[in-house]
């Protein structure tokens, strides 16, 4: 039994290119009790590998969280397979607006402690006591209500390139930080305001809404299926789109455009731009926003220092990295002192306050 990938990303990309067939980018999640995660993991890998499914899937005792690329022609068999798993029967599939055949190049099914690294101690509150799930139509209504505080549950580099009009966008690196910050700022309004939240596909709000209810918020709402599902609904039902800019996604596409507004700036020159890139210096790999002309001038790097390093022979680069620790430790998303135009979203939070709270 082959339970792991035997193709490199490059080989896979070539195969996809040759096949020339359309692939769909899909995500879904489900909280459900899974006993033997290892057996479940292997079952998924075998079934999906046979259908040429690629992606990143997390399996834990609390459920499953999956981001996938599925050949369009295998969508039906894939869906049928999901329906054979009792807790995944008719699970809501978030289908991306913009597809990219190269969104994922490997099938990785990983067993984890949790399906979202949320930093929460689930035993300390009732995770099943969630907020009220609302569809796009109801969400549009709610966010026009002066009694509503709309909160973006994502991190700074996600909301920087796109968010709902009038949303509070905490300047945080992690979900955990965001929870505390919001609670602190809204402490006075646990009874009188409607706390409406959203995230990419809905999964982060599942825990966040339960957490806020546990903390005493009386009126908690969450956008069902997140931004991805919202966009599908407004298109299908002809509703007004209240999302500005791009939706950050966690695959090769990095983001999908929802409205024509460019709400971010190049972190190097300040010109309007909303395309994320990773610094070409392997030892840096900083995620930041770079416009086309800076990309050319800086050769995909975040600094002149990184430019110089990225030009060194590979062995020399490796030698330089030695002793600097794991590159993951220095990997910081979209923050560096030498990027003058990185927006400080804390200011947005402050300036929003008088209107919203
Ligand atoms: Zn620029
Ligand atoms: Zn760099």
TrEMBL record:
Keywords: Oxidoreductase, tRNA processing. Residues 144-235 form the Rhodanese domain. It is an enzyme of class 1 (oxidoreductase). InterPro entries: Rhodanese-like_dom, Rhodanese-like_dom_sf, Rhodanese_C, TrhO, TRHO_N. Pfam families: Rhodanese, Rhodanese_C, UPF0176_N. Its EC number is 1.14.-.-. It catalyses: uridine(34) in tRNA + AH2 + O2 = 5-hydroxyuridine(34) in tRNA + A + H2O. PROSITE patterns: RHODANESE_3. PANTHER family: TRNA URIDINE(34) HYDROXYLASE, UPF0176 PROTEIN YCEA. Catalyzes oxygen-dependent 5-hydroxyuridine (ho5U) modification at position 34 in tRNAs, the first step in 5-carboxymethoxyuridine (cmo5U) biosynthesis. May be part of an alternate pathway, which is able to bypass cmo5U biogenesis in a subset of tRNAs under aerobic conditions. Belongs to the TrhO family. This is tRNA uridine(34) hydroxylase.
